[in-house]
Design a protein that fits this description.
Blueprint (H helix, E strand, L loop, with lengths): L2 E6 L4 H10 L5 E8 L8 H4 L16 E2 L9 E4 L3 H13 L3 E4 L31 E4 L6 H13 L2 E10 L11 H4 L4 E2 L4 H12 L6 E8 L6 E9 L5 H9 L15 E4 L7 H4 L8 E8 L5 E7 L3 H17 L9
Parallel strand pairs: 1-2, 1-4, 2-3, 4-5, 5-6, 7-9, 11-12
Antiparallel strand pairs: 7-10, 8-9, 10-13, 12-13
Helix pairs in contact: 1-9
Length: 334
């Protein structure tokens, strides 16, 4: 038994990740690919040159419109840009669809779960019993940090965080940053990334008083966001206890897209790196190293996650798997 799903924004980079990750998925079947008017009616292969490794699993699928009147699937994964999502996603919600979104407009809205399924699965209960709803996954930049902070906050309480990010260019989509801007160069992130990093973990961790100061930088790397984190805890348990808490942390539900171990603790001082560690756990694991006492706060460490998988399509897919595991989405719905 499977659930039919549609992908909104299927021609973009995150949309292609959805198509890739959903191929042969045990729970969800891609029934519809949807995109803008310029792609409607075209074969998927013609509408979207495949830009990921491996073959396009649905080259002959015909692209449809992002219109709830034309889409039959009860579940939609949204890879829409923020401006389009602001209009289209509520239309699908109001038409009784379950919307799993990677877009940002509704992340901080009251009643919309902002989910990392291993961290705050209880927030999924906010949509139980609703005919249509939106569930959001967080900004890609802070997910490695927030997953790492979760067990620390539960055991000892996290009061404040200072974080710097080193973000891959795939986070800007395709074609993204120009080669002229990025080759041999880094630059401060010009958007509102820092505000998202500062506010979204408060909602996820149920920690409205958590203070986060963030600086975000774009670097010439394809995939994988690295963050340097300094955290102030209410008590100082020492680096060894913190390492144990990180190494033993897993989500309460066994989900197809949630790896075990969830956190890989690395011993090398020059790790984690995007080239060697972004693909751990199928791109869904978090790699952490250099867990050390901080001279200013309590602890400091480096953490890395794949921004386009854990931080985007894979995260939304894991959220949908959580809804099935909790009985909020029912199998056999088509």
């Amino acid at each position: 038994m499977t659930i039919d799903v549609a992908i909104l924004g299927a021609t973009g980079m995150v949309g292609q990740r959805f198509v890739q990750l959903l191929a042969n998925h045990p729970t969800f079947r891609v029934a519809e690919l949807c995109a803008s008017e310029r792609s409607v009616g075209k074969r998927y292969e013609d509408a979207a040159p495949w830009r990921l490794s491996g073959d396009n699993p649905m080259p002959d699928a015909v692209v449809g419109p992002c219109d709830p009147g034309a889409v039959r699937s009860p579940v939609v994964f949204s890879a829409l840009d923020s401006a389009t999502a602001l209009i289209v996603e509520p239309a699908f919600r109001d038409a009784g669809r379950a919307v799993l979104t990677n877009a940002s407009p509704f992340r901080m809205a009251a009643g919309v779960p902002l989910l990392i399924p291993e961290v705050n699965p209880e927030h999924a209960e906010w949509v139980r019993g609703k005919a249509g709803f939106i569930v959001a996954n967080p900004n890609c930049t802070h997910q490695a940090m927030t997953i790492a902070l979760a067990p620390l906050h539960r055991r000892w309480g996290v009061e404040a965080v200072c974080v710097a990010s080193y973000q891959a260019v795939s986070g800007a989509g395709y074609p993204g940053e120009s080669a002229w801007d990025m080759l041999g160069n880094v630059h401060p992130h010009a958007g509102d990334e820092e505000e998202k990093v500062a506010s979204e973990p408060q909602k996820i961790l149920d920690a409205p008083d958590l203070r986060i100061s963030a600086r975000c930088v774009r670097v010439p790397v394809a995939d994988g966001h690295l963050v340097a984190v300094q955290a102030k805890l209410r008590v100082d348990p020492g680096p060894d206890a913190i390492r144990e808490a990180l190494a033993s942390f897993v989500g309460p539900y066994a989900l197809h897209s949630s790896p075990r171990p969830l956190i890989h603790l690395l011993s090398q001082r020059d790790r984690p790196t995007p080239k060697l560690d972004a693909d751990r756990g199928g791109g869904m694991a978090v790699s952490i190293a250099r867990v050390e006492r901080c001279e200013v706060f309590t602890v400091k460490f480096f953490a890395l996650a794949h921004n386009a998988i854990r931080g985007a399509a894979g995260g939304a897919l894991a959220n949908a798997e959580l809804l099935v595991a909790k009985g909020i989405l029912a199998l056999g719905v088509a």
